[in-house]
Amino acid sequence: MQGVLMQSLAPKPVAAFVLSVIGGGFIFAGGLLVLYLFILVPSTLGSGTIFGVSAGFAPLLGLVSGPAIMILATLFYREPEHGAVYGTMTIALSVVSYVSALGGLFVGLIMGLIGGVLILVWRPSPPQMGYHPTLAPYPAYRTCPRCGRAVVADARFCSYCGNVFA
């Protein structure tokens, strides 16, 4: 129970999460726009390529990379210790979205890149000074009646003079 409480009180990477999710949404919307233009207005895109990618394949990359960025952001929010992997993949998928879905109208590209960089550089704040229930309190002592030295309270004999305690 205490671990769950401490985990819920830990600082969360909210800015990186929000920017990446919104950027992924824009990239998905850009993929839908390119798909709409490809299907309903074929004369706009023709049968050629968009930035070197086949015009039929381009919208699919946007439709996959947008939700993938949102999933990576959610995974990072839940498990920030894997930020290097999630941040690198977010940046890579954002760059791929430029080629495939116009970068989510360029807004998704920028937000995905910033979110990915924030994921890479996010570190939790150091623990604050204060009460730590895992640390044991100082042991209690008592005085040996024979030699007068301090001995741990639950000892059976004095470690200095050998006096046995009753």
Structure description:
The chain is mostly helical and about 170 residues long. The chain has 2 domains: about 10-120, no CATH class; about 135-165, no CATH class. Helices cover about 60% and strands about 5% of the residues. The chain is built from 6 helices and 4 strands; from the N terminus they run αααββαααββ. The chain has helices at about 1-10, 15-40, 40-45, 60-80, 85-105, 105-120; strands at about 50, 55, 140-145, 150. The strands form 2 sheets. A two-stranded antiparallel ribbon has the order 1-2. Strands 3-4 form a two-stranded antiparallel ribbon. Helix 2 (about 15-40) packs parallel to helix 5, helix 4 (about 60-80) packs antiparallel against helix 5 and helix 5 (about 85-105) packs antiparallel against helix 6. The protein is rod-shaped and about 100 Å long. The chain starts with a helix and ends in a 14-residue tail after the last strand. The model is unreliable at about 1-5 (pLDDT under 50).
Q: Which parts are unreliable, with pLDDT below 50 for 5 consecutive residues or more?
A: 1-6
* Average of pLDDT: 80
Q: What share of the residues lie within helices?
A: 55-70%
Largest beta-sheet characterization: 2 strands, antiparallel
Strand content of the residues, in percent? Answer: 5-15%
Number of domains: 2
Q: Write down the Rg.
A: 30 Å
Which oligomeric form is depicted?
single chain
Q: Tally of extended strands?
A: 4
Order of helices and strands: HHHEEHHHEE
The DSSP helix count reads: 6
Q: In angstroms, what separates the terminal alpha carbons?
A: 41 Å
Structural class, please? mainly alpha
Strand order of the largest sheet: 1-2
